[in-house]
Amino acid sequence: MFGLPLAFAVPAVLFGLIALPVIWWLLRLTPPKPESEVFPPLRILQKLVKREETPSKSPWWLTLLRLLLAALVIFALARPLLNPQTEIALEDGPLLIMVDNSWASASDWSARQRTGAALIQSAGERGVPVAISPSVSPPNATITLVDAATAAASFATLEPVAAEPNRAQALNRLSEAASGSENATLAILSDGLAQGEQDSALDFNSNAVAKTLLFNGEITQLAAVSDAQNRTDALEATVIRSQNSQLADEINVNAIDEKGRLLGTATAYFEDGANEAVAAFEVPFELRNDMATLRVENQANAAATYLLDENNRRRRFALFSGLAGDEAQPLLSPLYYIERAIQPYADIVRPRTNDLSVDVPEILEQGPAVIVMADIGVLPNVVEDQVENWIEAGGTLVRFAGPRLAASAEVDPFLPVSLRSGERDLGGALTWTEPQVVAPFSATGPFAELDAPRDVTVNRQLLANPDAQLAEKTWASLQDGTPLVTGERRGQGTIVLFHVTAEATWSNLPISGSFVDMLRRIADISANTGASEIAAQSTASETLAPLRIVRSDGELISPPAFVKPRDTGNSAVTNYENPAGLYGTQDAFSALNILSSGAALTPFVMPQTEATVETLPYAVAEQTDLSGWLFALAFLLLIIDTLAMLWINGRFKRSYKTASASAAVLIAITVSGLIPDPAVAQDAKPGDELLIENLDATRIGYVLTGRQDTDKITKAGISGISRYLESRTAFEPSDPVGLDIETDALAIYPLIYFPIDANADMPSDTAIARLDAYMQSGGTILFDTRDQIGGSFNAGQSPENQRLRDIMRNLNVPPLEPVPADHVLTKSFYILDTFPGIYDGSPLWVQASTDEEGIDRPVRRGDGVSPVLITGNDLAGAWALDEAGKPLLPIASGNPLQRIYAFRTGVNIMMYMLTGNYKADQVHIPALLERLGQ
Amino acid sequence: MASIGQSTKPTGNKDALIRARQRAALVPELLVDALRIVNTVMAGWHGRKKRGIGETFWQYRPYTQGETMARIDWRRSARDDQTYVRDQEWEAAHTIWLWVDQSTSMLFKSSAAPVSKESRALVVTFALAELFARAGERVGYPGLLKPSANRKGAERLATAFATQTTAMPDTPSFLQVQRFSDVVLVSDFLGDTDETLAMIDDLASQGARMHLIEIVDPAEEDFPYGGRTEFIDPETGTKLTAGRAEDWRDDYRNLYQARRHALKARCRAHGGSYTISRTDHLASETLVRLHGFMTGNPAATGKMAGAS
């Protein structure tokens, strides 16, 4: 109805709509009853009325509201149903359901569920037994006729599996289950895809079946990846879709790596009516090798996910060397540079034994793309043919020269050019020639795009016999025209010869960047010569354990319990026990995909049967009864009508306190039910109040050691220096704050005084990490070991010193030095040359200045403030004053002037903290003033 | 929600007799009320027998602050430093006619008022009768009571009301009213304004001085109605429906006040007084004010009067 999937359960009630005009007439005629009032001065009012007409009818909007209300009630009574389900007529016999829970059914599985549930329900109403046979099911599954309730429960648990259906098997089971019964109804809930020959073989005991209901799935929305090929310049994914597909002609395919990150997107452009298109990922090799999965965008089916394994990915390089076992001296190993060059984009296969006659066949079985032979003179006769065949089939053989090849060059069949025996020595002691440099690369060879290296020189090389084809076979040559790299196509394969060694003895080519580029170009033109069967590497096990399984919606998941190890001997067809996925181990796995190259999405056609076939659509959506909503809407309108009536009658104005209050309550209740409570984010953290409190003034922090006597003296000391600062400088610090470095916020204090107390607990790692963060973010910690009486910072005997070392071990402390005479600290406020506390002996350590020595400046450049200051003079002790301003602790030396210097030290340190290099810049003032033109 | 205004005894126009009986039953109670009010009002008066409305000189007395300057006798004041006011002697044989509107509209009582308009009107009338009788005046009621000096003026009038056997006409006949008599009309004056004005002119032409007391229900003055309201005239039964009564409020008030101003101005023009008695205010206020007018000293009592 109205283009919507809408129907009415009791359409007769809709005749009530005819009454609407009558209702309209009545509503127009009978306005709301007015409040009757005796009013003696009516004559005066009558004078007014001459000017103003009294509306004797209801306002139009009120009438409309009420008509709407009436219409809503009528509609609601007619029980409108969204997505109405059509009744399905069943026969008297059992209901046999064959359901495709294959990959193609996943995208609209809920529709199948609903349809199946409706079928089973009507079977239950008729009291006939039901048998359900999923087409993707375990091989040993048995199907029996059960009652509708049991069937509904088991049907509800069915899930699509990322595998191809096996309809013949499912139908066979059904016919076994239904044997002996008559007048059965066969319901086929197909996924809509033809299974090729399988379908024509579909056979059913048609005697028992009186009617066949075919629910054919929609396949025009399906797209899948059937194949992926790693070509020279691109990874090409073949995307297929059905005939008459409703999908757009451009379908995006995403490439995803093992961790689920999107690596790239390629678009498959379908020509008009074409069912197949190629999406090419034209990205560099390295990126292609990281691709683990290809997924068609906006497709939630398992076949839209194409898993890539080693076969689609990196080239395999097999490396052979004439010199075995040079591992003690890797830099001299001829394969070392090759390995380093190709590792980023290729897999390296190594021979197991050093016996070429064993290794070569073994490695050829793995189908490498490239075989690199460094200075191998002669191949054993037994493998020559195999190598020959391999090259003909597309293998790329790369050879490097060397003494052995030089010796056997004349008889070697695997050379692109014929070589002269013996090597040519350039620039040696007995030659006149200089070492040769490389000429620009041949424009026709594969290196044409590369720039010839200028810094490569060649001392020795193998020379080719000049013949007519030498020039075209030469990919790279030296400046004098002699070949450096030659290549030849042979069959589908290629043979490449480097006329120098693979290590740096004959030339420095292997240690140049060009070497890497050249090998990469060779890798680009190569292709793997066969699928790598992992079984070849692990011959012991015949089966591969499931590693990751494709869920029916295309996501990779850990394998569920029903997935069995896969026998590699079986054909690569997905089924219930081996759905699509990765099988093997994390390091070596093979991918099992649903579709293979050449697959097509063709619609399923029911084979001819004798029974009548009725084709029905799936129930797309749940049937919803809308009458409840309509009644609710009508009730809402009723409330609005009531409020409108109250407003028209002036109740809101006349008796403000009662009517409007109750109306307000009514509105509030209505609205509160509609509007969710706005949640306010809770971003307050514990300790915020303290933080805010401490922000309004600058404070000096000190670390609470947990020992009362120390903390008391420290507090008194910091208070003392604060008072001194207040009286002597423009800086007026607030009360000092004792800090628990493990929990308190440190960032708001410019300086934290840290008295080391060996008897206190060692700060936890967290606390030290926070101190470190504080220092990194610009704070300064003043460590005071207070142990000058017992030793110095350098001596390291005192327990405080040891403690300080323990703490600093985990801090990023810059190199330290005692305050040099020209440091800013010596003149940031007072001119000082010592920094005493209670004791006088310890120097004050600061971050070592990295300035160059010897430049004559009054003050060192002091960019940045030292994040750490260390003293042993017990500064806080010297600063500690009691309430009356009298010192708490005596000065060790008894010299009263030392206390004054202690305070001055504190002032200088604080000024240094707050002004940084500003004081250092002060020395430039005369020069600046001069420059300003004074 | 109950309606704001109601007629206390909704009886038809024709059943005046029945209404009279009902009113008679109300009378003793109102009489008690009236006497109580009179006692409180009388307590504040001094020398009332000496000066008042009259033609002859009574005394000079010093001018007091607040009196109208027009009353100052400048000739006497010029003789010494004091300022004097000339008082007239209250003429003893003064006839005062009282009349109460007994139309149906007077039965109206709104929720904001404690009593109906009629009840208030009768209380005021009885109180006036008692006041004037005690002062030795002759109190009469057209068509009911001939003017006579009697100590128990209120009682006499009340008895007349209680024993009234004929229906009272809606418009009184003032044929018996003579010169120099005072006429007190207690009504809501909601009838035809032109008729009322004509009556005032007639009375003035007969030489009487008139005092109009307008009994007002607060609902009539304030028009607190809102929303869809059907207004019914208690006298004629005419109905009028307002879509949104609050929209009429301002216009109604303007018209209402215009009517009042017309009456007041005409009354003043003839040397009479116009007093407004709201049923939600005290009846004694009206009495004090009216008495002030009648004794020719409205300013002295002006502070006590609520209405203008």
Automatic annotation (TrEMBL), chain A:
Per UniProt, residues of the DUF4159 domain are 699-914
Q: Which residues form the Aerotolerance regulator N-terminal domain?
A: 6-80
Q: Give the matching Pfam families.
A: BatA (PF07584), DUF4159 (PF13709)
Task: Give the transmembrane region(s).
Answer: 6-27, 60-78, 626-647, 659-676
Q: What is this organism's lineage?
A: Bacteria, Pseudomonadati, Pseudomonadota, Alphaproteobacteria, Hyphomicrobiales
Q: Which NCBIfam families match?
A: two_anch
Recorded hits in SUPFAM superfamilies, A to Z, give: Class I glutamine amidotransferase-like
Sorted alphabetically, the keyword list is: Membrane, Transmembrane, Transmembrane helix
User: Could you identify this protein by its name?
Assistant: RNA-binding protein
TrEMBL record, chain B:
Q: Where is the DUF58 domain?
A: 59-261
The identity of this protein, by name, is DUF58 domain-containing protein
Name its species. Ahrensia marina
